[in-house]
Design a protein that fits this description.
Blueprint lengths: L1 H20 L4 H49 L2 H9 L7 H15 L7 H12 L3 H16 L4 H48 L3 H9 L1 H25 L12 H15 L5 H29 L4 H8 L5 H16 L5 H5 L7 H16 L1 H36 L3 H27 L1
Amino acid sequence: MRRRLIELLGVECMLMVLALVFHMQIPAAIITGMIGLFLLPVADRFVKRAKNKRQEYQDVACYMEQFLCSYKRTSLLGRTLEDCLILYEKDSIFYSVLKGAYHVLHTGERGEENISEQALEVIYKKYPSRRMRMLHSYIVKAEEMGGDMSEALNILLRDLEYWKERQIVFQKKKRILVKECILSTFLSVILCFVSYLLVPAAFRSTLVQSVYYQVAMVIFLSAIMILLVWLCYCASGNWLDTVKDTSETEKWQQEKNYELVREKKRTVAGYFAMRRMRTEIQREFPYWLLSVLLFLQQDSIYRAVKASVWNIEGVFRREVELFLDELYENPTSFQPFQNFFKEYDLPEIRSGMKLLYSFQNNGYEDTSKQIYFLIEQNNLAMNQVEKKQLENELTSLGLLRQFPMLFASGKIILDLVIVLMITMGKYFMG
């Protein structure tokens, strides 16, 4: 409460100083102050949200790293969760979530067949990280299959390190952009003040008494405050690698695009369907391939692909199921691998499927180097996909730097128009 009171006094004092500097009349100053009073709690909520999102990321990254290390050492899910619990304070949110998962694992109170899956789902529902879901699904399926999981866990650890590095770099760039936006805001206010000083002294008193000038000042300061609140919102984005829920309309559109491409219709709709689907497939393929490579450490190609189906949905799942049917009918043929999304002619898919086929024919010992090469290439592909998404977000945030100067330019032009009106009015009256 004390902090909010200090923030409120700080904002109102700053607005009062601006009102005095720009000679705003009392009604205009009151309206601007009320707008600032309304926007302050909104900005405060976004700042708090940014802090919570950062804490979520730190908790999840720490949990996944400890989970992988502990499970690699113990191969026991219960013991792994106990090791993870030690890392967190007992009054923290993540501790209570982990405790709930541990409780489900040891009591089986949900009455489901797979207790491990239900216990880990408790964590994922609260923290919907894509990598966490991949980790959990692999552990659940791998416990059913059995076998040595150490190499697969090393793959996940390596991918986790790549993800953490990307997020740290991205957040540093975002903080720099936020500081640049704030600096641009202050410079725009200074620019407006300098332009006001450049108005001849004979016209200043008449200018500030104009209704148009007072309205323009209210709009300018309100726009600046709204921009700063929007900046707080942009800075409070999610740190986790979550997947946006697909609406029924979007699913229907994806199915339609998928059918258009399969039918090879050379129309305008087919062209745009191909472009949209290529983007979707390029985004999803590295994650699916990583899931297959994890299960491939313990089982055959067919069973590894079948285990990976649990973690995908939509048209990608439909294509994987077609691939499984073809692989079942022709287990030694290259045709099923060649037919996988063949309409899109994507080089990363062709090379990945060729190496999977090579693995199936030669076995693990003969193609282990190729598998490691494929893993590294897939990590690079995932890195490019996620970097592109982050760069798009940074680009949209970078555009905000231009808005304060646009607002200031509009305000200066309006002042010039008002001065011109005053001058012309005196000329005709004279």
